[in-house]
From TrEMBL:
<dbReference type="InterPro" id="IPR036291">
    <property type="entry name" value="NAD(P)-bd_dom_sf"/>
</dbReference>
<feature type="domain" description="Enoyl reductase (ER)">
    <location>
        <begin position="11"/>
        <end position="322"/>
    </location>
</feature>
<dbReference type="InterPro" id="IPR002364">
    <property type="entry name" value="Quin_OxRdtase/zeta-crystal_CS"/>
</dbReference>
<dbReference type="InterPro" id="IPR013149">
    <property type="entry name" value="ADH-like_C"/>
</dbReference>
<keyword id="KW-0560">Oxidoreductase</keyword>
<dbReference type="GO" id="GO:0005829">
    <property type="term" value="C:cytosol"/>
</dbReference>
<protein>
    <submittedName>
        <fullName>Quinone oxidoreductase</fullName>
    </submittedName>
</protein>
<dbReference type="GO" id="GO:0035925">
    <property type="term" value="F:mRNA 3'-UTR AU-rich region binding"/>
</dbReference>
<dbReference type="Pfam" id="PF08240">
    <property type="entry name" value="ADH_N"/>
</dbReference>
<keyword id="KW-0521">NADP</keyword>
<dbReference type="InterPro" id="IPR013154">
    <property type="entry name" value="ADH-like_N"/>
</dbReference>
<dbReference type="InterPro" id="IPR047618">
    <property type="entry name" value="QOR-like"/>
</dbReference>
<dbReference type="InterPro" id="IPR011032">
    <property type="entry name" value="GroES-like_sf"/>
</dbReference>
<dbReference type="GO" id="GO:0003960">
    <property type="term" value="F:quinone reductase (NADPH) activity"/>
</dbReference>
<dbReference type="GO" id="GO:0070402">
    <property type="term" value="F:NADPH binding"/>
</dbReference>
<dbReference type="Pfam" id="PF00107">
    <property type="entry name" value="ADH_zinc_N"/>
</dbReference>
<dbReference type="InterPro" id="IPR020843">
    <property type="entry name" value="ER"/>
</dbReference>
Length: 325
């Protein structure tokens, strides 16, 4: 019997209950995957606590995972049972088995372990579109990345450095500062003990940054805008501390004719070509060693509630996964 973490109503981590949940036979364009691991991400928390609206109840959290194909739908020709696959736009990865749209799955190349793939698909492809497409980072650029010791942050810091940028990060403890400095960052500011706006100004001799990547939200806004050069870009791609309230667009004018965007991974991987290119770029920097991935936290999928508590309590660093089986 197949089991999953099921949510019947929005709530805290205790809202997730491990119980039988059979996803059924795969649809004509779906893959049935026996999962090895699922990624742990704040988007899972947002659906569980109601920040994002779940399409229906009950539902199984989780967008990111990896495993082995066990069956394919009648219209699927690109995948076969036995293929190792990963995905970042699935629904319900906190489960032993899942049906996944073939259009959202990619093959895991040799040299990439299932657990690594499960933990980097959403975070790594987020770093890819942020650094290569939202603002194409290159030599001469100075970037600021909040939550530098988080899952996206550790990948993005290394990748931005690989692309030739000067990379500044923020983190919430001395331990996290040290971790980020080990992953590509030139400078990391402990925002609990230092004013990151003042430190960025000092680090850059007043020149400030070309782009700020902000997944924190309420706690770092509007101070993030003060870290930007004239006509710089503020990229808000998450809200781990809460959503930004009452964003007055006139601030962009007042602080230097700034630009802002609120992108999502799904907006950058909407086509098969975009998904394949993003995944290929990610797997290449990992396989080459330009981006080193380590899994800092592993939880059995049955312990997803504890994983959410740690994530929301900012007790995690880097990549966290839920192991299955």
């Amino acid at each position: 019997m197949i089991h999953a973490m099921v949510v019947d109503a929005i709530g805290g981590p205790e809202a997730m209950q491990w119980r039988p949940h059979d996803p059924g036979e795969p649809g004509p364009r779906e893959l049935r995957v026996r999962q090895t691991a699922a990624g742990l991400n704040f988007i899972d928390v947002y659906f569980r606590n109601g920040t994002y609206k779940a399409p229906s109840f009950p539902f199984v959290p989780g967008k990111e995972g990896a495993g082995v194909v066990v069956a394919v739908g009648g219209e699927v020709s690109d995948f076969a049972p036995g293929d190792r696959v990963a995905y970042s736009a699935a629904n319900g990865t906190y489960a032993e088995e899942i049906n996944v749209s073939a259009a959202s799955a990619v093959r895991i190349p040799e040299g990439i372990a299932d657990e690594v793939a499960a933990g980097i698909m959403l975070k790594g492809m987020t770093a890819e579109y942020l650094l290569r497409r939202t603002f194409p980072v290159g030599p001469g650029h100075t970037v600021l990345i909040h939550a530098a010791a988080g899952g996206v942050g550790l990948i993005a810091g290394q990748w931005a450095k690989h692309l030739g940028a000067t990379v500044i990060g923020t983190a919430g403890s001395d331990e996290k500062v040290r971790l980020a400095l080990e992953h590509g960052y030139d400078h990391v500011v402990n925002y609990r003990t230092e004013d990151f706006v003042e430190r960025v100004a000092a680090i850059t001799d007043g020149a400030r940054c070309d782009v700020v990547y902000d997944s924190v939200g309420r706690d770092t806004f509007p101070a993030s805008l003060d870290c930007l050069k004239r006509r710089g870009l503020f990229v808000s791609f998450g809200q781990s501390s809460g959503t930004i309230q009452n964003f007055d667009l006139a601030l962009l004018n007042q602080k230097g004719s700034l630009y802002t965007t609120r992108p999502s991974l799904f907006g950058y991987t909407a086509t098969r070509e975009e998904l394949d290119e993003s995944a290929a770029a990610l797997f290449e920097v990992v396989r080459s060693g330009a981006v080193k991935v380590r899994i800092d936290q592993r939880y059995p999928v049955q312990d997803a509630a504890r994983a959410h508590e740690d994530l929301e309590g900012r007790r995690t660093t880097g990549i966290s996964i839920l192991t299955v089986g």
